[in-house]
Design brief:
This protein is α/β, with parallel strands linked by helices. It has 12 helices and 11 strands. The strands form 3 sheets. Strands 3-2-1-4-5-6-10 form a 7-stranded parallel β-sheet, with helices on both faces. Strands 7-9 form a two-stranded parallel sheet. The chain has a two-stranded parallel sheet with strand order 8-11. The longest helix is centred in the last third of the chain and has 21 residues. It is globular. The protein starts with 6 loop residues before the first strand and ends with a helix.
């Protein structure tokens, strides 16, 4: 490694965002240190690059800070709550740029509601369109996902000499995802379901975030250190019907979208992107401040995620296992939300 080689450390480096960022940075000539808990194998095809993998306990603050100090970039993909921000605050003056992944769910609707409090279509937040980084965010003491992420942001931004860029993605997707929403349609295609039922006329729109596009933003933030909050979403703004068609096309399949007006009926028609009001984030600030340009559109990016998911399932089958062993967390969510209740869908269609 030459004296001019830039160095990066990625906390949570084997997840979907960490893997994409490691690949992008390494391909650009960075020396990358991937820190992880050892629960995911990550991108095993990075051996041709200057990438080193270490196991690190996030709760061991002294070890984390010691390993992170001196890097040109520290990317934290798994920071979740204020105490993680307090850990990272110890890096002030010791890193070139800190990039922390937050979430678009920190935004509140016009009535002050946010995603964590939703019980049904009637109380879903009515968001400004598109959401900009200056729009209000949740600010309470609840210890659920969105309030904790918002509190993390405030903790980081309160440190004056910390060069931190906070990124707010939407529905993240890409290879190495432990919660790949696209599986909702991938499995249907693999099960020869050539007809999908969608509520709300198939028009639901929830900003998606390709890990490739997030990695581009990470790189730009590393090259232009600063204190900022930026949205990190695809610009396509695909509807759920368009997402279904893109996933099926990635598998070389055609699909008939059978959409009906109104909310899901007894669970039928709902998807991981189903929202009563659109949740769309603006990318204008990233373009102006960093010169950001989207690297891939949804249709192209999702093909890589689909390919990875199918390969993971085939590998499980060779081990005489099924898809639930490949994606255990996803299997739990699918069961709880009734993703694959084909009998209910068929009965609904027959009654129409």
């Amino acid at each position: 490694m030459s004296d001019t080689t830039r160095t990066a450390m990625i906390i949570g480096g084997t997840g979907q965002i960490g893997s994409a960022a490691a690949r992008r940075l390494a391909a650009d000539g960075w020396s990358v240190l991937v820190a992880h808990r050892g629960e995911h194998h990550g991108d095993t095809e990075l051996t041709e690059y200057d990438v080193t993998s270490i196991r690190l306990d996030r709760d061991d603050t002294d070890a984390l800070v010691e390993r992170a100090r001196g890097h040109d970039l520290v990317l934290d993909t798994v920071a979740y709550e204020p105490r993680h921000g307090e850990q990272l605050a110890r890096l002030a003056g010791d890193v070139g740029s800190l990039v922390v992944i937050s979430t678009g769910s920190v935004y509140t609707g016009r009535d002050g509601g946010y995603l964590d409090t939703v019980t049904g279509p009637e109380d879903f937040p009515d968001y400004p369109l598109p959401l900009r980084e200056t729009d209000p965010t949740v600010d309470n003491a609840e210890r659920t996902y969105s309030p904790l992420k918002a509190a993390l942001e405030r903790t980081l931004l309160a440190v004056d000499d910390l060069p931190v860029s906070i990124l707010r993605p939407g529905a993240v997707y890409g290879p190495f995802s432990p919660a790949l929403r696209e599986w909702y349609f991938i499995k249907r295609a693999l099960d020869d379901r050539d007809r999908v039922v969608l509520s709300d006329s198939g028009a639901n729109r929830f900003s998606t975030s390709s890990t490739v596009n997030i990695a581009e933003l990470v790189t730009l933030c590393a090259e232009q250190p600063g204190r900022r909050v930026l949205n990190a979403v695809d610009e396509d703004g695909f509807s759920v019907a368009e997402i279904a068609r893109a996933v099926y096309r990635a598998l070389g399949r055609d699909v008939e979208v059978d959409a009906f007006p109104g909310p899901p009926q007894d669970g039928v028609g709902g998807t991981p992107w189903t929202v009563a009001h659109p949740l769309l984030l603006s990318m204008a600030a990233a373009k102006v401040e960093l010169g950001y340009r989207q690297q891939v559109g949804y249709a192209e990016a999702v093909a890589a995620a689909v390919d990875w998911a199918v390969r993971e399932v085939k590998a499980a089958e060779r081990r005489q296992e099924d898809w639930t062993s490949a994606f255990p967390g996803l299997a739990t969510r699918a069961a709880e939300d009734g993703w694959f209740d084909y009998a209910a869908e068929d009965a609904f269609l027959a009654a129409r």
